[in-house]
Design brief:
- The structure holds three protein chains of three kinds.
- Helix content of chain A is about 45%, strand content about 15%.
- Chain A contains 17 helices and twelve strands.
- In chain A, helix 2 packs antiparallel against helix 13.
- The longest helix of chain A is centred in the N-terminal third of the chain and has 24 residues, at about 5-25.
- The termini of chain A are far apart.
- The longest helix of chain B has about 35 residues, at about 65-100.
- Chain B is mostly helical.
- Chain B has helices at about 5-35, 40-45, 55-65, 65-100, 100-115, 125-130, 140-160, 170-175, 180-190, 195-210, 210-215, 225-235, 240-260, 265-275.
- Chain C is mainly alpha-helical.
- In chain C, helix 2 packs across helix 13, helix 4 packs parallel to helix 7 (about 180-205) and helix 7 (about 180-205) packs antiparallel against helix 10 (about 235-250).
- The chains are: A alpha/beta, B mainly alpha, C mainly alpha.
- Chains in contact: A-B, A-C, B-C.
- Chains B and C meet through helix 1, helix 4, helix 5, helix 6 and helix 7 of B and helix 1, helix 2, helix 4, helix 5 and helix 6 of C.
Chain lengths: ~425, ~280, ~325
């Protein structure tokens, strides 16, 4: 830092100014590059084997549409999706194609392209389209769905002659039996999103099954957590799960839970199909079975299905034609859809595309699917994720003895004014 | 103040050694993990030595961090912001200290009031304004905000130092017909070297490790900084601690080496920045 | 106060030129002031754009119902502020942040002070120790959070296995211990920084004072209490202010370790504001919380300034 230091100051400042001018000029042209190719940005929150999916999608799309180049960007759905979307919308920098989780759409309809009139949308059966439509309009290409319920260790169940429970009480009886034999019944990872996720599961089978518009009614002030006996049941389910869980669930996160379940330390895990890839990575030989989360009333014990990965387009994209072409590839290329679900290990919403993954839990899911499934999207659309998560925090405080059950329910009601519901 | 190695000194030495072992424990764990395979982490004690060095962790972390890009971004942001800060705070401090009338004193108080406001408290409207000014996914926007928000502190330190510089040299320059601007550039700025070094060290440490601003403003892959990429190493769905901890070593190594080389300046810088 | 400073600019120039009676001298003074002002202008622009305008915008937004995305924005008066007074979560996050600050200030000050005293003695390998204790300062708080999550979750419990103990090390999994856990992590990171300031302060104490004390028959304790502590007065002030302000804006460490949990027990005020603005999309409500937090900070700053002034008078 002698005399040269200040020469450097000058030099770097001059360079900065020049570069800033260049950046300012180039930042607006995030599109056509020199070779005539259109670069489209894709915002993606998938987190299972992303490297493989990215490579596969790029290859397929760029083969069908030689003038298009895709650029992927990954974010964490549960921690970052809302904030990243908000910053992009505020900065008018929404990526051209956005992967949106089924249920998140109502928040963003203003900023998404209306796909209702596109021909490729007619490929999908009415009921699948309806699940994602807002005011009768399509804003997304449905792509995959996940299934939620109870994943269990087949070996432990067979060795202890355990029957698949069909009601909540039977599930608790199973838990008691396992516990008496020294086996921990449930894997629980309350450190991250599990309470929020199970909140939706339990609410779907116990509450929304009876009143599909409960979330809307909550918003309108017609119902409340504190006065709903069904929601009290939902909350109480957590207490019972907590009782039969591994030691210290509040210290365990998803990764740790996957490790624990893979090491056969617990018998059951109430989660969704996105977990199996991580479990099988730790223990490829594990025999995982699946049954629907049992409801208090047997007739509501249904497998929970949720549209998961869906693809939407920004309403303000500079390349609407190319974006629609890419979405068409997603909607119609069955070969790609099949590869996708095999890599991500999930189920496709593209007609006639069936997973090749051969695992006991997939067979179980298919069996239960034929009986009928509950659509988890209803509740998800009506009560936004941050709200579910916050209610989960109140449940945690109750389980940890910092709140009474009634206070936790009341706090959930009070949070209503602190969260933005869907724009419509 | 005896320089002898007495019993008391031995006692202190033992206490300090125990403390340092406590300090080293997390570092030790980071190192052991970074060289193990996932299977070994699940299967063995955290304190066991790795069976064989899993260098693949480092290449994976290198890739996951997008190391050159994110390191370059962080470096560019930090260096530009710090340089601008030194220059601007020097200018402000000079006119405040030498200008000397009520207006300049008032401006000084105006700036100083900003010291107690961490930008973290006003980041919501800052984000709204920034998005209107086109600061989103713009390295210069973030640099601008770092400069603006750190200026109060930098001016505070600079002005303190400026008061200790004798006026005589400048006055000689005025008599020779130098303008105030020219005097500042040619005579005053070079005299600020010691305080500039001090400020460089404190400010770069702050900006280098900051997370909130880049997390809010820079969501484009090519603009992410090291701190933001670090947080992606530990995602909720797929955390490989061996890769994550290898990433910790990778991303902290440059600044650690810098510290070892500049240890003396560091100490001087910190004490100077806070002592004035 | 700020706007005042800005507005008085043309006025003060004329005032300053008033007493000078000779016309051409008046001209020169003016020119000087303008030159000084030109030097001051760029920093002012940066400061006003980056801090003052957002501040004013934030205050304005806090009286509206804006969600941060939509184009609609309605004036709703003090509704947000009334909500805050009833918002248990805000109060809880505030309490947590306050406790975090108080404990940090006490522990970090004392520990840094004693580390400095110990490292200023005639022990061996001082530089090595100093480097180790300072090293965590160089890590980003994100990494510190991850490292300590792993420490509490796996590493320390495995010590139980080795020695056959059953100490509960998982500080992050219970609301009663989460503060302790975060304090350990935060202090591990920052003690080294403040230790250096105390070290510099110690080394600035003239050696002959100690020698004079030794001649007068003073022992180690007397020297410590009558020379070391009073001479380090300024360092103590600096460290206290630095640690307190640093603790109040804690965010990264918590995001990377507990995520505010279990429940809401370790949510800091900044984190709560962030979640409200960017997760729940209540931008205006978050702004109102910022304003309240800012007022508290300013009151706090005022008290600190007073204490500082008082100390200066005493010296």
């Amino acid at each position: 830092m002698k005399k040269g230091f200040f020469k450097w100051v000058h030099l770097i400042m001059i360079i900065s100014i020049i570069v800033s001018l260049l950046v300012a000029c180039s930042s607006s042209s995030s599109g056509t590059s020199k070779d005539g190719k259109v670069t489209l940005k894709v915002l993606d929150w998938n987190n299972t084997n992303t490297k493989e999916t990215e490579k596969m999608i790029k290859e397929t799309v760029e083969k069908e549409l030689p003038n298009v180049k895709l650029e992927f960007e990954y974010i964490n759905w549960d921690t970052d999706f809302s904030s990243v979307m908000q910053t992009r919308i505020a900065g008018k920098q929404l990526p051209d194609i956005i992967m949106i989780k089924g249920g998140d759409h109502p928040k963003y309809t203003e900023h998404l392209m209306d796909l209702s009139t596109e021909e490729f949308m007619s490929e999908f059966p009415e009921d699948i389209r309806k699940a994602l439509q807002i005011d009768g309009k399509d804003y997304a290409v449905p792509y995959t769905s996940n299934f939620q319920g109870v994943f269990y260790n087949k070996r432990i169940f067979t060795e202890n002659n355990i029957e698949i429970p069909k009601t909540w009480d039977e599930l608790m009886a199973v838990a008691e039996t396992l516990k008496s034999k020294g086996i921990t019944p449930f894997t629980s990872h309350f450190k991250d999103y599990q309470i929020g996720n199970s909140f939706n599961q339990f609410a779907t089978i116990e509450v929304y099954s009876k009143n599909p518009t409960w979330g809307n009614d909550l918003q309108k002030g017609k119902v409340s957590f504190a006065t709903s006996p069904e929601f009290k049941t939902v909350f109480e389910h957590f207490e019972e799960i907590y009782k039969y869980s591994n030691k210290d669930p509040f210290g365990l996160d998803f990764t740790g839970a996957a490790e624990m379940f893979a090491k056969e330390e617990t018998a059951m895990w109430i989660i969704g199909t996105w977990s199996t890839a991580q479990v099988l990575k730790n223990n490829p030989d594990l025999e995982i079975g699946f049954f629907p989360t049992p409801a208090t009333d047997e007739k509501n014990t249904k497998i929970i299905m949720q549209p998961d990965h869906t693809f939407s387009a920004s309403a303000t994209t500079k390349h609407p034609k190319e974006v629609k072409q890419v979405l068409e590839v997603f909607a119609t290329n069955k070969d790609m859809a099949k590869k996708y679900i095999d890599i991500v290990q999930t189920e496709s919403l593209i007609p006639d595309v069936v997973s090749a993954v051969q695992a006991p839990y997939v067979e179980d899911i298919n069996t239960y699917k034929s009986i009928g499934a509950a659509d988890a999207n209803l509740g998800n659309v009506q009560i936004p994720w941050p709200y579910q998560e916050q209610s989960g925090n109140y449940i945690a405080e109750w389980l940890l003895g910092n709140k009474t059950l009634d206070k936790a329910l009341k706090a959930s009601d009070d949070f209503k004014s602190k969260v933005k519901f869907s724009t419509k | 103040m005896s320089k002898k190695y007495t019993k008391g000194t031995f006692l202190i030495q033992s206490i300090v050694t125990v403390i340092v072992i406590f300090y080293l424990l997390p570092f030790l764990v980071v190192f052991l993990y970074a060289f193990k395979s996932p299977q070994e982490i699940i299967g063995s004690s955290p304190f066991s030595l790795p069976e064989k060095l899993e260098l693949v962790n480092f290449t994976q972390a290198f890739e996951a961090l997008n190391f050159f890009q994110s390191f370059g971004n962080t470096f560019f942001i930090t260096a530009s912001a710090v340089l601008l800060l030194i220059l601007l705070s020097g200018m402000a401090a000079y006119s405040i200290v030498r200008g000397g009338n009520t207006f300049f004193n008032g401006t000084y108080m105006f700036f100083i009031a900003g010291i107690m406001i961490p930008y973290q408290v006003i980041f919501v409207p800052m984000f709204v304004l920034g998005s209107n000014l086109g600061f989103i996914n713009n390295l210069f926007g973030v640099i601008f905000l770092y400069v603006g928000t750190s200026l109060p502190f930098a001016i505070f330190v600079m002005a303190g130092f400026m008061k200790t510089i004798p006026k005589e040299i400048e006055e000689a320059a005025f008599i020779d017909g130098c303008s105030i601007m020219r005097t500042f550039w040619i005579i005053v700025l070079p005299m600020l070297k010691p305080v500039a070094a001090a400020l460089t060290i404190i400010l770069s440490l702050q900006i280098w490790n900051d997370y909130l601003l880049p997390q809010l403003f820079l969501s484009d892959n090519s603009m992410k900084t090291l701190t933001v990429m670090q947080s992606t190493l530990f995602s909720a769905f797929e955390t490989n601690f061996n890769v994550g901890f290898a990433g910790i070593i990778l991303s902290s190594l440059p600044i650690l080496i810098l510290f070892l080389f500049m240890q003396k300046h560091f100490v001087k810088g910190i004490t100077m920045g806070s002592g004035k | 106060m700020r706007l005042e400073g800005k507005n008085t600019q043309p006025m003060s120039i004329t005032i300053s030129s008033k007493p000078t009676s000779i016309v051409h001298k008046k001209k020169r003074v003016n020119a000087r002031d303008i030159q000084y002002f030109l030097l001051l202008l760029p920093p002012l622009v940066f400061f006003i754009v980056a801090m003052i305008i957002p501040l004013i915008m934030g205050i304005y937004n806090s009286f509206t119902d804006w969600d941060g995305i939509s184009l609609e924005k309605n004036w709703i008066g003090f509704t947000n502020y009334i909500e805050i007074s009833k918002d248990e979560m805000f109060i809880q996050s505030f309490k947590f942040t306050g406790l975090f600050m108080i404990f940090n200030t006490i522990i970090q000050n004392i520990a840094a002070f004693f580390f400095a005293v110990m490292l200023d003695s005639s022990i061996k390998a001082k530089n090595f120790y100093r480097t180790i204790i300072f090293a965590p300062v160089l890590l980003s708080p994100i990494l510190v959070g991850q490292i300590w999550t792993k420490m509490y979750g796996t590493i320390l419990p495995s010590i139980n296995d080795i020695f056959g103990l059953s100490i509960n090390f998982n500080f992050f999994s219970s609301p009663d211990t989460v503060l302790t856990g975060l304090l350990v992590a935060n202090n591990w990171q920052w003690i080294g920084y403040w230790m250096l300031i105390y070290l510099a302060g110690l080394q600035a104490v003239p050696k002959d004072i100690y020698e004079a004390c030794t001649v007068d028959g003073g022992n180690w304790w007397q020297k410590f209490f009558h020379i070391t502590i009073p001479m380090l007065g300024p360092s103590i002030t600096i460290c206290t202010i630095g640690i307190a302000t640093g603790s109040l804006k804690v965010y990264e460490l918590i995001v990377a370790s507990t995520g505010g949990g279990p429940g809401d027990s370790s949510k800091s005020t900044i984190m709560h504001i962030y979640d409200t603005a960017f997760m729940s999309q209540q931008s205006s409500y978050a702004s109102a919380m910022s304003v309240v937090f800012l007022l508290v900070l300013l009151i706090f700053a005022f008290i600190q300034l007073k204490v500082l002034r008082k100390r200066e008078v005493e010296l």
